[in-house]
């Protein structure tokens, strides 16, 4: 087959379920279905509780709602290809659909990182200037922060589909994950991917890398402020309000760093390990964030318990 013909024959990609064990894919259907259901129920509960509970109409909980919406959107970005592979045994995905999914996965990943930065700023203001907390973080400012976070994600991810579409694909069209990622697709190209690699590195450094530094700096300032509080009980109370956010940051960045390190330096590891880490990176935060906030935040926990007790009494 000549080069020109082979460069134009990839109208689709083949996604990978469990590497080397396609017959085991159906076994993953129900655990994945359970995780997606838990994501929708957990984040939906957070949104519903904040909406109906007047005492939760504060900046912290508005940012939490934005995080919940982002988590649901990120999960829904992977849902079509996951269902296609594990429920319907149909691993093929059209080229344009793959690029679209790629855009949304990377986009919502950048949005989530930006939301975590916003929540760090929220905690800093709440602890540094509690009396003016609500007057500083007004509804208008929160809305503007949300729009800036979304606009940044769209701007930095927007070139990615065009960078992929310009590449000729004349090698295997089998991707190594159950969904489409920029770095996974570009390795199949039969032309130089230096521009793609450089742009991807710049985006990661200027978004997730910079966001991590800002969050770290925010907590340095928060810790400095807390240590200046005279009462030990008040210091513990202030730090306790940050625990949920710290857990959310760790749930997002640790799997991301782990997946990145394995992708870069773990080529000798089993493909199953790569698949496992890649899925954890996208599935774990949306599932666990609502649980963390429900357990650590007294107001949310109390309201959820009231709802369940009400239903129990009605039955």
Characterization of the model:
By secondary structure, the chain is an all-alpha fold. Helices cover 76% and strands 2% of the residues. It contains 13 helices and 2 strands; from the N terminus they run αβααβαααααααααα. α12 crosses α13 (298-314). GO terms for molecular function: G protein-coupled receptor activity; olfactory receptor activity.
List keywords for this structure.
single chain, 2% strand, 315 residues, Rhopdopsin 7-helix transmembrane proteins, two-stranded antiparallel sheet, disordered N terminus, mainly alpha
Q: How many individual helices?
A: 13
Number of domain modules: 1
Low-confidence runs (pLDDT<50, min 5 residues)?
A: 1-9
The fraction of residues assigned to DSSP E strands is under 5%
Number-wise, the strands total: 2
- The CATH homologous superfamily: Rhodopsin 7-helix transmembrane proteins
| Overall mean confidence score, pLDDT | 86
Biggest sheet strand line-up: 1-2
Q: What is the CATH class designation? A: Mainly Alpha
Category by helix and strand content: mainly alpha
Radius of gyration: 22 Å
Share of helical residues: over 70%
What is the CATH topology descriptor?
A: Rhopdopsin 7-helix transmembrane proteins
| Main sheet: strands, sense, barrel | 2 strands, antiparallel
């Amino acid at each position: 087959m000549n080069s020109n013909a082979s460069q134009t024959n990839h109208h689709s990609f083949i996604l990978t379920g469990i590497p080397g064990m396609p017959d085991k894919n159906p076994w993953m259907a129900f655990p994945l279905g359970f995780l997606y259901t838990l994501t929708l129920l957990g984040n939906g509960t957070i949104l519903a509780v904040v909406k109906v509970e007047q005492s939760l109409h504060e900046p912290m909980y508005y940012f939490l709602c934005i995080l919940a919406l982002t988590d649901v959107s990120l999960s829904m970005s992977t849902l079509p290809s996951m269902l296609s592979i594990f429920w319907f045994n149909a691993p093929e995905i059209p080229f344009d659909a793959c690029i679209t999914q790629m855009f949304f996965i990377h986009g919502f990943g950048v949005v989530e990182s930006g939301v975590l930065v916003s929540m760090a700023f929220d905690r800093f203001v709440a602890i540094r200037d509690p009396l003016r907390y609500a007057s500083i973080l007004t509804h208008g400012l929160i809305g503007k922060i949300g729009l800036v976070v979304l606009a940044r994600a769209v701007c930095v991810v927007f070139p990615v589909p065009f960078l992929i579409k310009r590449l000729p694909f004349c090698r295997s069209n089998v991707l190594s994950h159950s969904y489409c990622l920029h770095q996974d697709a570009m390795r199949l190209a039969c032309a130089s991917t230096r521009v793609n690699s450089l742009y991807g590195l710049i985006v990661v450094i200027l978004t997730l890398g910079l966001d991590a530094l800002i969050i770290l700096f925010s907590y340095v300032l928060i810790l400095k402020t807390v240590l200046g509080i005279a009462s030990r009980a008040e210091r513990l109370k202030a730090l306790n309000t940050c625990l949920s956010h710290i857990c959310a940051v760790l749930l997002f960045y640790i799997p991301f760093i782990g997946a990145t390190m394995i992708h870069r330096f773990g080529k000798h590891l089993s493909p199953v390990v790569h698949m496992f880490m890649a899925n954890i990176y996208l599935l774990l935060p949306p599932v666990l964030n609502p649980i963390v906030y429900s357990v650590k935040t007294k107001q949310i926990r109390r309201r959820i318990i009231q709802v369940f007790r009400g239903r129990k009494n009605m039955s």
